[in-house]
Each structure stands twice: as structure tokens, then as C-alpha cells.
Amino acid sequence: MKVILFLFFTFSISAQIKGVVIDENNKPISFVNIWVEDESIGTTSQENGTFSIDISSEKTVVFSAVGFETKRMTISDKQKVVLKEAVFKLEEVVIEKSKQTKELEIGGMKKIHHRQLSGDNPWIYAKRFNYDENYKATPFIKNIVFYSDSEIKNAKLKIRIFQLQDSLPANDLIEEDIIVSVKKGMKKNVIDISKYKLKMPKNGVVIGLEWLIIAENYYEFKYQDSKKKRITMPNYQPSLVVNYFEERNAFNYRGGKWYWSYITNTNGNHPWTNKIMTPAINLILTN
């Protein structure tokens, strides 16, 4: 049985505002996460930095991108949004030489036919990995492993690796975009990040999968409602496979803020009843 879960909400459309996101050297910034603050309205900048979003002009818009300071501002049509390069002090990051003679896979990920759709917003769906003393023999993060279920070929998404601060995701640990393409269908994806020589921080790490609201990811999702009426909704691929945990270990980023994933309280004997919906992600550690 394939279960489909929704992250999107309904909203009223105002005016379409177009713009471009650039850096301080006037170069376009691709794949910027763009949200109306505290609302379920968002988009992604295209590869040339351009974007369009349906909002009223007085709304505050949040721009978030790897390697840049998050910016909150009101915007007008045809505006250039300039992001400043971020400077972070990453105290937990230690760079050492990796031998890669041992491996340990962690995370409890399972391949099940339950998936999360993005709708038409650039959500970040994330999972926390706590540090354990047993990781001393394999302290480096070698691979990020996750399951996707895509209706189209070569759908793109962004991988984010975050520090934890006050129990929520904070700064990016890798200050460059990690863009991956996934194949059509239910696939196990193994992403090699060994080149970054990243050690597991003592306070844990958060791995985020970020949907990109770009033209090449577009897909029309069709389903029947309770009255058997055919509904067509905009959706951006890929869908992400979800698992269910009793431990509170998942987050989502929306409206320019991080939120803990909620506990489902549906009636009946279902695998998700009173559990946390968590993206199916594992880490492979090495020495």
C-alpha cells in the first residue's frame, strides 16, 4: 500500500512579484529558498537567480541560501535582492585525514511505500542524528543515504547539513550547495560527502532534504477527493519516503522558520499512529 502525505496548505493569491537574487558581486544565486514569513507561500530562485511569487507588497519575505546570511525584507516587482556572504564560526567542525577502512551505518531507515509530497513550496524536511560514544572509531560522515519516490526523471533536490543550536537546526556545516538528481520511481540514493572530511559534531547533526521549486521538477499531481471528484494540483518532485519513530527527531522548515515535526494522532491501528513522521535518511560513518 502506498500512502501519500501532504505538506501544503491553501492560500489566497495576490499579485505576482518577479525579481532576481544576486550576491554582492552582482552574480545570480541559484536555488535560494524563498518564503513569505510565517505563511505557507514560497518558491525557489531558478538557476539564473530569477524568481516569481504571488504575494501582496507589504508581506515580509525570507531569503535563505547556503553560504549567505538569511535576509528578511518586503519586496517590489522587478527588484534585485542582494544577499551577503555569511561568516560562521563552526566550533564543532574538525578537519582531519580519513582512512576509510571501517564503516558504520546509522539512522534506522526503512524502505516503505509512504511518501511526503512538497506541493508547491520549498520545504526543508530534516532528521536529527545524535552523537554517540560508539562513533569514536568511525567519526567521519562518509555518505548520506535517503529514499525518494519520483514521478519524473532526474528530479533535483538540495542536501543541507546543519549544526544544532538550542535544539533546532542552525548554521550550515557545508558552505556550498549539494544538488543531487534522483531517478524516476522508488530509489535508494547514496550521496558521497567524504571530500568534506566532516566529523560528527558532539552535539549531533541535522540532515535536511530541500525541495526545489524549479520548472524541471514540476509535476501535476492528480487524485480523487472524498466525493470521487478528480483533483489536479501543482507538485514538485521528488517525493520523499517517510518512516515513523517514537523519538522526536525530525524538523521542517517553512515560512522562514524551523519547526519540530508533529506527532500524528490519527485513530486506528496504523504504523504512523502517535509517531513522528521522519524522512528516510541514514548516515554512513567511517574512520
Give the overall pLDDT as a whole number: 89
Number of strands: 24
**Percent in strands:** over 45%
Distance between the termini: 39 Å
Roughly how much helix do the residues carry, as a percent range? Answer: under 10%
Number of helices: 0
What structural class do the secondary elements suggest?
A: mainly beta
Oligomeric description of these chains: single chain
Shape: globular
The unreliable regions are 8-13
Describe this structure as you would to a colleague.
- By secondary structure, the protein is mostly beta strands.
- Helices cover 0% and strands 47% of the residues.
- It has no helices and 24 strands.
- A hairpin with a 2-residue loop joins strand 13 and strand 14 (168-172).
Outline the fold blueprint.
Layout: E1 3-5, E2 15-22, E3 33-36, E4 42-44, E5 50-55, E6 61-64, E7 71-73, E8 79-82, E9 103-106, E10 114-116, E11 124-129, E12 140-150, E13 155-165, E14 168-172, E15 178-182, E16 185-192, E17 205-211, E18 218-224, E19 230-236, E20 239-245, E21 250-254, E22 257-260, E23 276-279, E24 281-286
Parallel strand pairs: 1-10, 2-8
Antiparallel strand pairs: 2-5, 3-4, 3-6, 6-7, 9-24, 10-20, 11-17, 11-21, 12-16, 12-20, 12-24, 13-14, 13-15, 13-17, 18-19, 20-23, 21-22
